[in-house]
Write a structure and sequence with these properties.
Elements (H helix, E strand, L loop, with lengths): L3 E9 L19 E9 L5 E3 L9 H8 L4 E3 L3 H12 L8 E2 L1 H7 L6 H7 L10 H8 L3 E2 L2 H5 L5 E2 L7 H27 L6 H16 L1 E3 L1 H26 L7 H10 L9 H8 L6 H12 L6 H9 L5 E2 L3 E2 L9 E2 L12 H4 L12 H4 L3 H7 L4 H7 L5 E2 L4 E8 L2 H10 L2 H9 L3 H10 L8 H13 L6 H10 L6 H14 L2 H19 L2 E4 L2 E4 L5 E5 L5 E12 L6 E10 L2 E7 L1 H27 L2 E6 L2 E7 L6 H8 L15 E6 L5
Parallel strand pairs: 1-4, 4-5
Antiparallel strand pairs: 1-2, 2-3, 6-7, 8-9, 8-12, 10-11, 13-21, 13-22, 14-15, 15-16, 16-17, 17-18, 18-19, 20-21
Helix pairs in contact: 3-7, 4-7, 5-7, 9-12, 9-13, 11-12, 18-24, 18-25, 20-21, 22-23, 24-25, 25-26
């Protein structure tokens, strides 16, 4: 049996974010190791008491240097970084395994305490460690008396000042190793192993996170100044209009609004827009809502986040979470690149859009008064709309950005064997126009841009069994307001035109019910619905990896006015756990999005093979970097993204990718 070594550090640091890896590449010893718990295989954990100046145990050093020993840690990046930059032993990523990654793959929680609970691991709670991490790893404020006696403004508590708590701190470090090891064993026992291909996706993810993306610091600093000045001015104006002591306080401002008839409990973008549509809104309330709207949400706050997380070499790293969603799509952390502000059309339509130097305007001509004098939009809109241009190519390099066009709709059409949709994609016809022409009973030549926009929303929203009420809300999110009749026409018209898609929902729903009820495997549309394990329902995708649904069972629902069988399961997410129901449209949505992600990952592998350096993946995009003057270009990237994966041969996907080449990222 291959030897495994589980390790866990506790450190002293101003910033300790294991999950984010902010301490990466900090070679100035700002992260000082205090102790290291370690265990070989199933042996009892031991403690290296670094705080006492102990030499590293010989067996530990030998294992860290032995290339045949696999190294394991929960959120391993922190342990790997400490081992390299603080201990001085460099370890290749291929030697590491991470129990949290296996849990993520299996759609279990990625937090150790929650994962242990989900896996039914008892007597291994580590939540109390937070108390001791705060006590010993973070600096405490010095008292006035301490400062008067010559101490600094902060100090660290330690084993001398709090010996009893320190002993518990050390025990929790040992307990972390026990818990992560037991979580690993429990997850493995569920027999849901990552495929070799999926392990390689995780390693690709780690290479992307380690590389990071170069930041235009001039842009970020100047954009931040403009945004902050605008925010301060708006807040002063809100205060003058409302008398609220702290207009930046959500609760204070919301209370002021509600006292004057504001009907919602939220001040997010959607609710403010909805409130502004009310004709009977009081003039002062409308004025303040419009001022609140000008703040531009939280887009400008990302600038501060970029500066906080940027390395000394000007690169932003560790922004992507492997298997961040149930379907394995990437999620974001830190700056949250997956939810960048959608550019304002007025900003992007300004004449400088065609000038590759347009991003420079924000700081070469970024005098706020000047901006107000000659620009037809607010400085805040300018900052939010151009924030993507903070991410640029390294000196001597360029960016190529490719986007898989209509990938979900294309995968859905192929799985359903929907000839009307597949032929439209194969022949390059405009599906958005076609669906509206059918719905309105007019010719394609009569379809306007507004019609086409509605058609796009129908294709995007109706593929997964969405009802007309939900579709009406969905369309409103895109700025398209529909009547009840229009929403019904859209939903039922889609199902009538593409009959194979509702049939696909039914086929998957029946397969899932049968698999869980009879504990059997059911083959459907290139996937295997595996209900043999009563603890985990698996849907094996064409790529070989699986979707996982924990503790599934069949029950009867009267949701649609008649008794219908359905499968329910335990869903884990960032908010906790809950019982969720599966139905045909949702199952198909999960499968389609998962296959789309696998196609994206395949394109990333192909791009690496050609020599591209992958910097980011945002939704269906791949952002790569290559030297100026090299043979690597946009056409080559798009070709990589549309190569048929080995596992998709014979399925019939019609893939298309679009993109651009330049020196900075944009929409």
């Amino acid at each position: 049996m291959q030897q495994r070594l589980f390790i866990d550090y506790e450190t002293r640091s101003h910033i300790k974010l294991k999950a984010c890896g902010l301490d990466r590449y900090l070679k100035d010893k700002s992260t000082q190791p205090l102790m290291l718990a370690y265990a070989f295989n199933d042996d009892e954990p031991k403690l290296w008491k670094i705080w006492l100046g102990e030499e590293m145990p010989a067996e530990l050093r030998a294992a860290l240097l032995d290339p045949t020993v696999m190294l394991g840690a929960w959120n391993y990046n922190f342990e790997r970084d400490c081992t390299e930059y603080q201990i001085g032993i460099k370890t290749p990523q291929a030697r590491w395994f991470d129990p949290s990654v296996l849990c993520a793959y299996m759609s279990l929680p990625i937090g150790l305490d929650r994962a242990a609970k989900a896996l039914d691991i008892v007597n291994l709670k580590t939540a109390g460690a937070k108390k001791f991490i705060k006590m010993f790893s973070e600096p405490s404020k010095s008292t006035k008396k301490m400062i008067k006696n010559g101490a600094g403004t902060t100090y660290y508590k330690d084993w001398n000042s709090h010996p009893e708590e320190w002993a518990q701190f050390a025990e929790y470090c040992l307990q972390d190793v026990r818990a992560e090891r037991e979580a690993w064993h429990a997850a493995v026992a569920l027999n849901c192993p990552q495929t070799d291909e999926e392990v390689n996706v995780w390693r690709l993810d780690q290479r992307m996170n380690e590389k990071g993306v170069y930041i235009d610091q001039d842009y970020v600093n100047n954009a931040k100044k403009i945004a902050e000045a605008e925010v301060n001015e708006i807040l002063l104006e809100i205060k003058a209009n409302t008398g609220v002591e702290n207009p930046n306080s959500r609760d204070q401002l919301l209370g002021w609004f509600q006292e004057r008839g504001y009907p919602y409990d939220s001040l997010d973008k959607e609710h403010i827009e909805e409130a502004l549509n009310h004709k009977n809104l009081k003039p002062l309330v409308r004025t303040v809502l419009e001022l609140k709207q000008k703040l531009g949400g939280s887009a400008y706050k990302k600038l501060e986040s970029i500066l906080d997380r940027m390395g000394s070499d000007g690169r932003l790293r560790d922004q992507f979470i492997y298997h961040g969603a149930h379907t394995a799509r990437w999620a974001g952390r830190g700056v949250q690149l997956q939810n960048l502000y959608k550019p304002d059309r007025q900003v992007m339509a300004y004449p400088w859009e065609k000038d590759t130097t347009h991003r420079l305007d924000i700081y070469t001509r970024g005098i706020r008064l000047g901006l107000k004098m000659y620009l037809p939009f607010t400085p805040m809109n300018l900052v939010a709309s151009t924030i993507r241009s903070a991410f640029i190519a390294s000196p001597g390099h360029k960016l190529d950005v490719g986007d898989l066009a209509q990938i979900e709709s294309r995968v859905l059409a192929c799985l359903a064997k929907c000839d009307a949709m597949m032929s439209a994609y194969a022949q390059g016809r405009d599906l958005y126009k076609e669906v509206m022409a059918h719905q309105l009973g007019i010719s394609l030549s009569e379809i306007t841009k507004a019609h086409r926009d509605r058609g796009k929303i129908i294709i995007l929203g109706c593929g997964y069994g969405m009802g007309w009420e939900h579709f009406k809300e969905f369309a409103a999110g895109y700025g398209v307001m529909l009547t009840e009749k229009e929403a019904k026409d859209a939903v039922y018209g889609f199902r009538e035109l593409y009959t194979e898609i509702p049939a696909l929902w039914k086929e998957f729903n029946n397969a899932v019910i049968r698999a869980v009820k009879s504990n059997v495997c059911v083959y459907v549309k290139g996937c295997i619905v595996d209900g043999r394990n009563p603890d985990v329902l698996k849907i094996k995708l064409p790529s070989g990896r699986c979707l996982h649904y924990h503790h599934p069972y069949v029950n009867t629902s009267n949701k649609f006015g008649r008794p219908l069988e359905q499968v329910s399961y335990m869903q884990y997410d960032s908010k906790g756990s809950k019982i969720s129901d599966l139905y045909g449209g949702l199952i198909v949505e999960n499968v389609v999005q998962a296959i789309a992600r696998d196609i994206l990952a395949s394109g990333m592998f192909e791009a690496e093979k050609e020599g591209f350096i992958i910097l980011m993946t945002i939704h269906d995009e791949i952002v790569v970097e290559s030297p100026i003057g090299s043979k690597l270009n946009l056409d080559k990237l798009l070709e990589c993204m549309t190569r048929c994966p080995w596992w998709a041969e014979g399925i019939g996907f019609v893939l298309k990718a679009e993109g651009y080449e330049g020196f900075y990222y944009r929409k």
